[in-house]
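If your schedule permits, I should be very grateful for your opinion on a structural question. What I wish to show you is a protein chain and, alongside it, a tokenised description of its three-dimensional fold. Would you kindly read the sequence against the tokens and tell me how you understand this chain to fold? Here, with my thanks, is the record as I have it:

===
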Amino acid sequence: MKTRSLLPLAAFWLAASTAGAAPAAGAGAVRNCHLPGVTATLRCVGIDVPLDHAKPTGPKLKLHVTIAPAHRQGVRGDPLFVLAGGPGEAGSDVAPLLGTAFSRVRATRDIVFIDQRGTGRSGKLDCKSKPEHERMSEDQLEAELLACIAAAKVPFGAYTTEAAARDLELVRQALGYRTVNVFGGSYGTRLGQAYARLYPSSVRSLVLDGVAAPDQVIPAGARDGQAALDKMFAQCAQDAGCSKAFPKLRAEFDGLVAKLEAAPLKLSLPDPRTAQPAEYTMTAARFLGTVHGILYSPADARRLPFLIHNAAQGQWRPFVARQNLAGDFGGEGHIATLLHFAVVCAEDVPRMTPELLAADAGKLTKTLADKMPALCKSMNVPAVPYKEPSRIEAPALLLSGALDPVTPPRRAERAASYMARAQHVVVDNVGHGVSQLGCAPRLLRAFLDKPQDKLDASCLKQIPPPTFQLGSAGPQP
């Protein structure tokens, strides 16, 4: 993509800042750029950060930062820094949120998307998937991953959450902002909290959507996933159409799991790309992993009864088609697989005690949790010791979906216990991610304008529950 240089970085951004922060060394020139899913011209810059923050003059990494300037320049000098999820998702991957979650905020504030080290355009640590990925056995997939890890000549120990948080401070300095507001989604809420603790004077406020608790162990999510699945079953039983169409839904689900746990199922189905006959192997791990992924979105979850019932009747095409939507792991917008493992293996797996796993009741994520310790050995990253979280003084807005299978409200409540001024909003008919829905974009603007004020979030109660899909034609009208 052809770009052109603009004004030098410091001069350009200091004009929009209320601060007089000196620009950091290592910041390149701002240039016009475009990102997938965003029609407007944005501004991009590369910022050099140390690979090891303990050695500031040592080897460097170049972070990619995307700025969507405020529509009204000079109104607000404190931007919104956007931290994506995963770990492994890049800020540039979620830039389309400009048209939804951040549509109101951008009127008066710059929106700054940061590609965390090892993601997106900041040296993405990834494994390329093969076209036949969906048809590989689990042993083959694991061998592919191990080969990718072995081939990567990367110091994975440098890619921790703390290192990424220290990068954020260098980005703030390079762009000349005195203080920033931080938006984090999912894993981005962990990174946002880490940044606020390391640099309290730099953070004006926090908006955390799908909140990870400081002590949360990412792979140990079976209890939360099971709770979301149980809610879906209960809602189907209470819905006249769903209960009539699928009166034995829970029994059908349990029967499928038992059958797949006993032995993988061989399926012959048309290849989704070529329509040619292809052989698939459905295992319990793939089945449960797909169900867990579907539960992230309530609209998607309302298709589950139809998918489960058809699979129980031997009609696997709808389920496999939905599974294949998440089947490509090497696409440009997909999470950085090796960065994900670098973070989780260093920060989460060392805390996966037998007691924690025994208390993590449920099956949806158990297979992955059981495999993680062995996979992490090949990553060879030093464990990051867990520290008791310090108190966050900045005002914080915490958003939770009551149907979230990975960061349910109980996780946000735990995070809020370490915050001096936290407002926690729970939305009934929402799963993993609130900010794009209903009146949430307006509430984000209201909170950022006056983070010290009590927010009236009653309008979020107007978000209706999606309807269930009862047949091949799609959800009920």
